Amino acid sequence: MSYSAPHFDTAFNIAHILKDSGYFINIIGLALSSIQYNIKLRESNELLNQQYKKIKESEKMKSEFINIAAHELRTPIQPILGLTETMYSMVKDKEQHQLLGIVTRNAKRLKRLTDNVLDVTKIESQSLMLKKEKLNINILIAEVLKEYVNKNLKKEMVKIVYDFKSKNDDIIVEADRVRLAQVIRNLVDNAIKFTAMYNNQQTISVTVDRKKEEGKEEQAIVSVKDTGHGISKEILPKLFLKFTTSDSSTGTGLGLYICKNIIEAHDGKIWATNNKKNGREEEGVGSTFTFSLPVKQ
Fold first, then answer.
1. Among 86, 107, 121, 287, whose CB has the most other CB atoms within 10 angstroms?
2. Which of 128, 151, 181 corresponds to the end of one domain?
């Protein structure tokens, strides 16, 4: 069987057309696949957005509920606390005095808990407001530590020592006075609690210094050193996370989380270390909590 030139050209053209058609079919197939993929991707994104909105709405409702509940709990606590403190100072009977002391301590504990819950909801909803002003951090710390003069630290057999390491007592920072005092108070309270729990007749040291590294902003350094049991190596890296405590039997694990967020909102840093023994950090010899803030003078 023989093929003439026209027959050959026709067969070649048909083959060429079929080949080109195959390319087009592949391209169309890819385009359709891409369109289907984009449609499915858009549908998935819409579904994810809907779920995300539901989660955000749920979180908002949860925060609002916790906020309202904490406010409702705190409202009656203040008059109860005021009344029990007044009665505590007036009552002479030893047994009644002890009972009122128990009521007062637990009312204060409940107030701290509700305050912490409110602060956490503010932090997580990014509504923690700061009223910053220039203040002398040495004076602020001295004012906070005066609150402990009237507290019965003899019962815990704990002494607080305040040390200015800097020759210049005027260390000015820009901070919210109330919130910064809250951080200092929390660190000192923790130091008292764990020092009294594990040792007798021990000292808590509060020190203030300033540090300037080349190329960096000068920092005010505040440290609270206790002589308690220290912090385990497992807990130390996550100590400032929510619901983490160095002792599972005490506390809610909110205080240090709140402190961290307050300090970071002031462009500062906060950290904890175990105290050194023979030049090495070790458990059993206490811990030191330190925070730094930029100096503004």
1. 287
2. 128
**Are 176 and 29 in the same domain?**
no
Give yes or no: residues 179 and 276 share one domain: yes
Q: What is the CATH number of the domain that holds 284?
A: 3.30.565.10
For the stretch 181-220, pLDDT in tens is: 999 999 999 888 887 666 555 788 999 999 988 788 999 9
Give the CA angle between residues 157, 159, 165 to the nearest 5°.
160
> 68-91, pLDDT tens digit by residue?
777 777 788 888 888 888 888 888
Taking each continuous run of H as one helix and of E as one strand, the counts in the chain are: 6, 9
Evaluated on CA atoms 252, 198, 196, 287, the torsion sign reads negative
Q: In terms of domains, do 192 and 285 share one?
A: yes
Q: Which two tokens stand for residue 286?
A: 């206490």
Say if residue 235's pLDDT is above 70.
yes
What DSSP designation does 237 have?
A: G
Strand duo 158-164 + 202-211: pairing: parallel
Shared domain check, 172 and 209: yes
Total residue length of the chain: 297
Find the angle CA(87)-CA(91)-CA(96) to the nearest 5 degrees: 95
Q: Tell me the pTM.
A: 0.74
Cβ burial, residue 184 (10 Å; 0-12/13-18/19+) = buried
Is 151 in the same domain as 234?
A: yes
The kind and range of the H/E element at 21 are helix 5-90
> Which residue range(s) make up the domain with 35?
1-128
The two tokens of residue 28 are 């169309």
Q: Is the pLDDT score of 232 beyond 90?
A: no
- Which stretch of DSSP H or E encloses residue 122? helix 94-124
CA-nearest of 178, 205, 206, 188 to 265 is: 178
Task: Please enumerate in sequence order all residues whose Cβ is within 8 A of that of 38, keeping only pairs 6 or more positions apart, or say none.
Answer: none
